[in-house]
Amino acid sequence: MIDTFERKIDYLRISVTDRCNLRCRYCMPAEGVPAVDHSQILSLEEVFRIARVAVALGVGKIRLTGGEPLVRKGLIPLIEKLCHLPQQPELTLTTNGLLLANQAQELKKAGLQRVNISLDTLHAERFEQMTRRPGLEKVLDGIRAAETAGLKPIKLNVVPIRGVNADEICDFARLTCDHDWQVRFIEFMPLSSGLDYAPESRFPAAEILAEVQKLGQLTPLERKGPAGPARLYKIQGAMGVVGVIPAVSDHFCAECNRLRLTADGQLRPCLFSDHEIDVRTALRRGCSDEELALLLRIGVKEKPQQHHINDENAVKPSLRRMQGIGG
Ligand code: SAM
Ligand code: SF4
Q1: Interatomic CA distance for residues 238 and 208, integer angstroms
Q2: pLDDT-wise least confident of 13-27, 145-159, 299-313
Q3: Which segments of the chain does DSSP mark as H helices, in order?
Q4: How many whole angstroms separate alpha carbon 299 and alpha carbon 277?
Q5: CA-to-CA distance for 279 and 296, rounded, in angstroms?
Q6: pLDDT on residue 222
Q7: Helix axes 75-83, 100-110, angle to 10 degrees
Q8: Ligand with an atom nearest the CA of residue 32
Q9: In this structure, what DSSP letter does residue 8 have?
Q10: CB 121 less than 6 A from any atom of ligand 1
Q11: Separation of alpha carbons 74 and 47, rounded Å
Q12: Which of 92, 188, 259, 319 is 20 to 30 A from residue 307's alpha carbon, by CA?
Protein backbone atom coordinates (compact mmCIF):
# COMPACT_ATOMS: atom_id res chain seq x y z
CA MET A 1 0.00 0.00 0.00
CA ILE A 2 1.40 3.39 -1.00
CA ASP A 3 0.12 6.52 0.74
CA THR A 4 -0.48 10.04 -0.55
CA PHE A 5 3.16 10.96 0.10
CA GLU A 6 4.65 7.97 -1.74
CA ARG A 7 5.46 6.09 1.46
CA LYS A 8 5.13 2.31 1.38
CA ILE A 9 2.93 1.26 4.31
CA ASP A 10 3.72 -2.33 5.25
CA TYR A 11 3.86 -2.39 9.05
CA LEU A 12 0.88 -2.87 11.38
CA ARG A 13 1.10 -2.40 15.15
CA ILE A 14 -1.75 -4.16 16.88
CA SER A 15 -2.66 -3.39 20.46
CA VAL A 16 -4.24 -6.55 21.86
CA THR A 17 -5.30 -5.05 25.19
CA ASP A 18 -5.56 -1.72 26.99
CA ARG A 19 -4.84 -3.45 30.35
CA CYS A 20 -1.42 -3.28 31.96
CA ASN A 21 0.32 -4.71 35.02
CA LEU A 22 2.55 -1.63 35.44
CA ARG A 23 1.76 2.06 35.85
CA CYS A 24 4.78 3.74 34.27
CA ARG A 25 4.86 7.42 35.14
CA TYR A 26 5.58 8.51 31.56
CA CYS A 27 2.63 6.53 30.25
CA MET A 28 -0.16 6.77 32.83
CA PRO A 29 -1.32 9.04 35.64
CA ALA A 30 -1.21 7.74 39.22
CA GLU A 31 -4.86 6.73 39.24
CA GLY A 32 -4.38 4.60 36.10
CA VAL A 33 -6.67 4.83 33.11
CA PRO A 34 -10.32 3.68 33.04
CA ALA A 35 -10.41 0.25 31.39
CA VAL A 36 -12.32 -0.02 28.14
CA ASP A 37 -15.38 -2.23 28.55
CA HIS A 38 -14.70 -5.83 27.50
CA SER A 39 -17.50 -5.69 24.95
CA GLN A 40 -15.63 -2.95 23.10
CA ILE A 41 -12.35 -4.88 22.92
CA LEU A 42 -11.78 -6.85 19.74
CA SER A 43 -11.87 -10.61 20.12
CA LEU A 44 -8.68 -12.30 18.95
CA GLU A 45 -10.68 -13.75 16.03
CA GLU A 46 -11.53 -10.18 15.02
CA VAL A 47 -7.90 -9.14 15.39
CA PHE A 48 -6.83 -12.06 13.24
CA ARG A 49 -9.32 -11.20 10.54
CA ILE A 50 -8.10 -7.61 10.27
CA ALA A 51 -4.47 -8.79 10.26
CA ARG A 52 -5.20 -11.38 7.58
CA VAL A 53 -6.73 -8.74 5.31
CA ALA A 54 -3.86 -6.31 6.04
CA VAL A 55 -1.27 -8.95 5.19
CA ALA A 56 -3.08 -9.72 1.93
CA LEU A 57 -2.79 -5.99 1.14
CA GLY A 58 0.98 -6.08 1.59
CA VAL A 59 1.64 -5.68 5.32
CA GLY A 60 4.80 -7.68 5.91
CA LYS A 61 5.45 -6.91 9.56
CA ILE A 62 3.14 -7.08 12.56
CA ARG A 63 3.98 -6.01 16.10
CA LEU A 64 1.74 -7.01 19.00
CA THR A 65 1.62 -4.44 21.76
CA GLY A 66 -0.71 -3.05 24.43
CA GLY A 67 -1.23 -2.15 27.31
CA GLU A 68 0.78 -5.19 28.21
CA PRO A 69 0.23 -7.79 25.47
CA LEU A 70 1.29 -10.73 27.66
CA VAL A 71 -1.69 -10.22 30.00
CA ARG A 72 -4.07 -11.01 27.11
CA LYS A 73 -5.35 -14.59 27.21
CA GLY A 74 -5.25 -16.53 23.95
CA LEU A 75 -2.23 -14.73 22.55
CA ILE A 76 -0.32 -17.91 21.67
CA PRO A 77 -3.01 -19.30 19.31
CA LEU A 78 -3.27 -15.84 17.69
CA ILE A 79 0.49 -15.83 17.05
CA GLU A 80 0.32 -19.36 15.61
CA LYS A 81 -2.46 -18.34 13.24
CA LEU A 82 -0.65 -15.20 12.12
CA CYS A 83 2.53 -17.16 11.46
CA HIS A 84 0.65 -19.68 9.38
CA LEU A 85 -0.64 -17.07 6.97
CA PRO A 86 0.69 -17.94 3.50
CA GLN A 87 2.56 -14.60 3.30
CA GLN A 88 4.41 -15.41 6.58
CA PRO A 89 4.57 -11.88 8.00
CA GLU A 90 7.39 -10.97 10.37
CA LEU A 91 5.93 -11.12 13.85
CA THR A 92 7.29 -9.27 16.87
CA LEU A 93 6.02 -8.10 20.26
CA THR A 94 6.71 -5.23 22.66
CA THR A 95 6.45 -6.09 26.34
CA ASN A 96 7.38 -4.77 29.74
CA GLY A 97 8.88 -8.21 30.37
CA LEU A 98 7.14 -8.95 33.68
CA LEU A 99 5.44 -12.11 32.36
CA LEU A 100 8.06 -13.03 29.79
CA ALA A 101 10.04 -15.60 31.79
CA ASN A 102 7.07 -17.97 31.80
CA GLN A 103 5.99 -17.34 28.24
CA ALA A 104 9.19 -16.94 26.20
CA GLN A 105 9.51 -20.60 25.10
CA GLU A 106 5.86 -20.84 24.16
CA LEU A 107 5.98 -17.56 22.23
CA LYS A 108 8.99 -18.72 20.25
CA LYS A 109 7.39 -22.10 19.57
CA ALA A 110 4.24 -20.36 18.34
CA GLY A 111 6.35 -18.53 15.75
CA LEU A 112 7.12 -15.14 17.32
CA GLN A 113 10.45 -13.91 15.97
CA ARG A 114 11.63 -11.23 18.38
CA VAL A 115 10.67 -9.19 21.41
CA ASN A 116 11.33 -5.60 22.40
CA ILE A 117 11.52 -5.36 26.16
CA SER A 118 10.90 -2.01 27.80
CA LEU A 119 13.18 -1.38 30.77
CA ASP A 120 14.15 2.05 32.06
CA THR A 121 16.39 1.30 35.01
CA LEU A 122 18.70 -1.40 36.34
CA HIS A 123 17.96 -0.48 39.98
CA ALA A 124 15.12 -2.26 41.79
CA GLU A 125 14.02 0.71 43.88
CA ARG A 126 14.04 3.06 40.94
CA PHE A 127 12.10 0.50 38.90
CA GLU A 128 9.36 0.57 41.50
CA GLN A 129 9.47 4.34 41.62
CA MET A 130 9.17 4.71 37.82
CA THR A 131 6.57 2.02 37.23
CA ARG A 132 4.72 2.27 40.57
CA ARG A 133 5.12 -1.53 40.91
CA PRO A 134 7.96 -3.85 41.96
CA GLY A 135 9.37 -6.25 39.39
CA LEU A 136 12.91 -5.57 38.14
CA GLU A 137 14.08 -9.14 38.85
CA LYS A 138 11.15 -10.57 36.92
CA VAL A 139 12.00 -8.41 33.90
CA LEU A 140 15.65 -9.47 34.06
CA ASP A 141 14.50 -13.11 34.22
CA GLY A 142 12.30 -12.38 31.23
CA ILE A 143 15.23 -11.01 29.22
CA ARG A 144 17.30 -14.10 30.00
CA ALA A 145 14.40 -16.41 29.10
CA ALA A 146 13.82 -14.59 25.80
CA GLU A 147 17.47 -15.00 24.89
CA THR A 148 17.47 -18.68 25.82
CA ALA A 149 14.31 -19.22 23.79
CA GLY A 150 15.98 -17.65 20.74
CA LEU A 151 13.79 -14.55 20.50
CA LYS A 152 16.74 -12.70 19.00
CA PRO A 153 18.17 -10.18 18.70
CA ILE A 154 16.95 -8.89 22.04
CA LYS A 155 15.96 -5.25 21.83
CA LEU A 156 15.68 -3.16 24.98
CA ASN A 157 13.62 0.05 24.91
CA VAL A 158 14.79 2.70 27.37
CA VAL A 159 13.10 6.09 27.88
CA PRO A 160 15.62 8.42 29.58
CA ILE A 161 14.01 11.02 31.82
CA ARG A 162 16.07 13.97 33.02
CA GLY A 163 16.71 13.82 36.74
CA VAL A 164 15.19 10.34 37.02
CA ASN A 165 17.10 7.67 35.06
CA ALA A 166 19.18 9.62 32.50
CA ASP A 167 22.24 8.87 34.66
CA GLU A 168 21.90 5.22 33.55
CA ILE A 169 22.33 5.85 29.81
CA CYS A 170 25.95 4.66 29.88
CA ASP A 171 25.07 1.61 32.01
CA PHE A 172 22.46 0.57 29.45
CA ALA A 173 24.68 1.33 26.45
CA ARG A 174 27.51 -0.67 28.06
CA LEU A 175 25.29 -3.77 27.93
CA THR A 176 25.89 -3.84 24.16
CA CYS A 177 29.62 -4.36 24.73
CA ASP A 178 29.10 -7.94 25.98
CA HIS A 179 25.69 -8.79 24.55
CA ASP A 180 24.46 -9.02 21.00
CA TRP A 181 21.53 -6.78 21.92
CA GLN A 182 20.08 -3.60 20.53
CA VAL A 183 19.66 -1.04 23.29
CA ARG A 184 17.34 1.67 22.00
CA PHE A 185 16.93 5.00 23.72
CA ILE A 186 13.55 6.59 22.96
CA GLU A 187 12.93 10.26 23.60
CA PHE A 188 10.19 10.83 26.14
CA MET A 189 7.06 11.98 24.31
CA PRO A 190 5.27 14.32 26.69
CA LEU A 191 1.96 13.87 24.94
CA SER A 192 -0.61 13.10 27.59
CA SER A 193 -1.91 15.22 30.42
CA GLY A 194 -1.58 14.23 34.07
CA LEU A 195 1.83 12.58 33.75
CA ASP A 196 4.33 12.93 36.57
CA TYR A 197 7.14 14.11 34.28
CA ALA A 198 7.13 17.62 32.83
CA PRO A 199 7.84 18.09 29.10
CA GLU A 200 11.22 19.55 30.10
CA SER A 201 12.17 16.11 31.46
CA ARG A 202 12.68 14.95 27.90
CA PHE A 203 16.31 13.99 27.40
CA PRO A 204 16.92 14.83 23.73
CA ALA A 205 18.62 12.49 21.27
CA ALA A 206 21.70 14.73 20.95
CA GLU A 207 22.30 14.56 24.71
CA ILE A 208 21.73 10.80 24.73
CA LEU A 209 24.41 10.39 22.06
CA ALA A 210 26.81 12.66 23.95
CA GLU A 211 26.37 10.43 27.00
CA VAL A 212 26.95 7.19 25.05
CA GLN A 213 30.06 8.68 23.45
CA LYS A 214 31.68 8.72 26.88
CA LEU A 215 32.09 4.94 26.43
CA GLY A 216 34.20 5.18 23.28
CA GLN A 217 34.08 6.01 19.62
CA LEU A 218 30.65 5.57 18.05
CA THR A 219 30.30 4.39 14.48
CA PRO A 220 26.97 5.17 12.82
CA LEU A 221 25.57 2.10 11.05
CA GLU A 222 24.17 2.32 7.57
CA ARG A 223 20.39 2.15 7.48
CA LYS A 224 19.26 -0.75 5.35
CA GLY A 225 15.74 -0.89 3.93
CA PRO A 226 12.90 0.17 6.23
CA ALA A 227 15.14 0.40 9.28
CA GLY A 228 12.47 1.95 11.51
CA PRO A 229 12.94 5.17 13.41
CA ALA A 230 16.11 4.18 15.32
CA ARG A 231 19.43 5.72 14.36
CA LEU A 232 21.94 2.94 15.01
CA TYR A 233 25.52 3.10 16.31
CA LYS A 234 28.17 0.68 17.43
CA ILE A 235 30.53 1.38 20.29
CA GLN A 236 34.04 0.39 19.23
CA GLY A 237 34.51 -3.35 19.84
CA ALA A 238 30.92 -3.92 21.02
CA MET A 239 28.89 -7.03 20.17
CA GLY A 240 25.57 -5.22 20.06
CA VAL A 241 24.15 -1.98 18.80
CA VAL A 242 22.92 1.25 20.37
CA GLY A 243 19.85 2.90 18.86
CA VAL A 244 18.53 6.40 19.40
CA ILE A 245 14.94 7.27 18.50
CA PRO A 246 14.55 11.05 18.25
CA ALA A 247 10.76 10.74 18.46
CA VAL A 248 10.24 14.43 19.18
CA SER A 249 13.38 16.35 18.26
CA ASP A 250 13.81 15.04 14.73
CA HIS A 251 10.65 13.56 13.34
CA PHE A 252 11.05 10.66 10.93
CA CYS A 253 7.66 11.05 9.30
CA ALA A 254 9.10 10.84 5.78
CA GLU A 255 10.06 7.25 6.57
CA CYS A 256 6.89 6.29 8.41
CA ASN A 257 5.62 2.92 7.19
CA ARG A 258 3.05 2.07 9.86
CA LEU A 259 -0.59 1.85 10.77
CA ARG A 260 -1.86 1.22 14.28
CA LEU A 261 -4.89 -0.77 15.42
CA THR A 262 -6.14 -0.10 18.94
CA ALA A 263 -7.48 -2.85 21.19
CA ASP A 264 -11.01 -1.51 20.66
CA GLY A 265 -10.74 -1.72 16.91
CA GLN A 266 -9.85 1.77 15.79
CA LEU A 267 -7.34 2.23 13.02
CA ARG A 268 -4.96 5.09 13.76
CA PRO A 269 -3.08 6.57 10.81
CA CYS A 270 -0.69 8.61 13.01
CA LEU A 271 0.54 8.13 16.59
CA PHE A 272 0.34 11.86 17.20
CA SER A 273 -3.16 12.49 15.87
CA ASP A 274 -6.53 11.61 17.37
CA HIS A 275 -7.95 10.83 13.95
CA GLU A 276 -9.18 7.22 13.87
CA ILE A 277 -11.16 4.96 11.57
CA ASP A 278 -13.74 2.72 13.19
CA VAL A 279 -13.09 -0.83 12.03
CA ARG A 280 -14.90 -2.53 14.92
CA THR A 281 -18.35 -1.25 14.00
CA ALA A 282 -17.89 -2.39 10.40
CA LEU A 283 -16.68 -5.81 11.56
CA ARG A 284 -19.60 -6.29 13.91
CA ARG A 285 -22.03 -5.23 11.22
CA GLY A 286 -20.79 -8.25 9.29
CA CYS A 287 -18.76 -6.44 6.65
CA SER A 288 -16.96 -8.35 3.90
CA ASP A 289 -13.19 -8.70 3.57
CA GLU A 290 -13.39 -6.22 0.69
CA GLU A 291 -14.96 -3.61 2.99
CA LEU A 292 -12.26 -4.26 5.58
CA ALA A 293 -9.60 -3.81 2.93
CA LEU A 294 -11.22 -0.52 1.95
CA LEU A 295 -11.06 0.71 5.57
CA LEU A 296 -7.38 -0.21 5.74
CA ARG A 297 -6.76 1.65 2.49
CA ILE A 298 -8.59 4.67 3.91
CA GLY A 299 -6.28 4.48 6.95
CA VAL A 300 -3.28 4.58 4.62
CA LYS A 301 -4.75 7.39 2.53
CA GLU A 302 -5.44 9.47 5.64
CA LYS A 303 -1.90 9.30 7.01
CA PRO A 304 -0.75 12.91 7.41
CA GLN A 305 2.51 13.99 5.81
CA GLN A 306 4.02 14.65 9.24
CA HIS A 307 3.15 15.38 12.85
CA HIS A 308 3.24 18.90 14.23
CA ILE A 309 3.77 18.31 17.93
CA ASN A 310 6.77 20.64 17.93
CA ASP A 311 4.75 23.55 16.56
CA GLU A 312 4.03 26.33 19.00
CA ASN A 313 0.24 26.06 18.77
CA ALA A 314 0.12 22.32 18.15
CA VAL A 315 -3.00 20.52 19.33
CA LYS A 316 -1.83 17.51 21.31
CA PRO A 317 -3.71 14.23 20.88
CA SER A 318 -6.00 13.79 23.86
CA LEU A 319 -8.16 10.79 23.04
CA ARG A 320 -5.74 8.12 24.22
CA ARG A 321 -2.54 7.67 26.17
CA MET A 322 0.43 5.59 25.03
CA GLN A 323 -0.97 2.57 26.83
CA GLY A 324 -4.16 2.92 24.76
CA ILE A 325 -2.31 3.17 21.46
CA GLY A 326 0.57 0.76 21.96
CA GLY A 327 3.49 3.15 21.49
N1 SAM B 1 3.47 -2.44 27.88
C2 SAM B 1 4.37 -2.70 26.83
C3 SAM B 1 5.71 -2.06 27.11
O4 SAM B 1 5.80 -1.22 27.99
O5 SAM B 1 6.66 -2.43 26.42
C6 SAM B 1 3.87 -2.28 25.45
C7 SAM B 1 3.13 -0.99 25.36
S8 SAM B 1 4.08 0.48 25.70
C9 SAM B 1 2.89 1.75 25.46
C10 SAM B 1 5.11 0.57 24.26
C11 SAM B 1 6.34 1.44 24.39
O12 SAM B 1 5.93 2.77 24.57
C13 SAM B 1 7.24 1.11 25.57
O14 SAM B 1 8.55 0.85 25.10
C15 SAM B 1 7.22 2.36 26.42
O16 SAM B 1 8.45 2.57 27.04
C17 SAM B 1 6.89 3.41 25.40
N18 SAM B 1 6.29 4.62 25.96
C19 SAM B 1 5.18 4.74 26.72
N20 SAM B 1 4.94 6.02 27.04
C21 SAM B 1 5.92 6.75 26.46
C22 SAM B 1 6.23 8.14 26.39
N23 SAM B 1 5.47 9.04 27.00
N24 SAM B 1 7.32 8.51 25.69
C25 SAM B 1 8.09 7.59 25.06
N26 SAM B 1 7.84 6.29 25.06
C27 SAM B 1 6.78 5.85 25.75
FE1 SF4 C 1 4.40 0.93 31.21
FE2 SF4 C 1 3.91 -0.29 28.83
FE3 SF4 C 1 2.16 -0.41 30.83
FE4 SF4 C 1 2.56 1.91 29.61
S5 SF4 C 1 1.71 0.11 28.70
S6 SF4 C 1 2.32 1.55 31.82
S7 SF4 C 1 4.75 1.75 29.14
S8 SF4 C 1 4.25 -1.21 30.84
Answers
A1: 18
A2: 299-313
A3: 44-56, 75-83, 100-110, 124-131, 136-149, 169-178, 205-212, 279-284, 289-301, 322-325
A4: 7
A5: 9
A6: 87
A7: 30
A8: 2
A9: B
A10: no
A11: 12
A12: 92
- What are the angstrom distances between the C-alpha of 270 and each of 141, 193, 221, 291, 306? 34, 19, 27, 21, 9
Closest CA to 5 of 307, 273, 228, 314: 307
The atom number, within ligand 2, closest to the CA of 322 reads: 4
Q: What is the DSSP letter of 149?
A: H
Mean pLDDT of the chain: 94
Residues with CB under 6 A from ligand 2: 20, 22-24, 27-28, 66-68, 96, 118, 322-323
Report pLDDT for 225: 61
Asked if 219 and 238 touch (Cβ cutoff 8 Å), the reply is: no
Instruction: Name residues whose C-beta falls within 8 Å of residue 165's C-beta, 6 or more positions apart in sequence.
Output: 120, 121, 126, 130, 158
pLDDT tops 80 at residue 317: no
State the distance from the centre of ligand 2 to the C-alpha of 72, rounded, in angstroms.
Answer: 14
Nearest CA to ligand 1 atom 16: 118
Question: How many C-beta atoms surround the C-beta of residue 41 within 10 A?
Answer: 23
Ligand closest to the CA atom of residue 194: 1
Which tens digits make up the pLDDT trace of 50-102? 999 999 999 999 999 999 999 999 999 999 999 999 999 999 999 999 999 99
CATH class of the region 11-324: alpha beta
pLDDT for 192 beyond 90? no
Ligand 1 centre distance from Cα of residue 322 (Å) = 6
Radius of gyration for the chain, computed over Cα atoms and rounded to the nearest angstrom: 19
Does the pLDDT value for residue 226 go beyond 70?
no
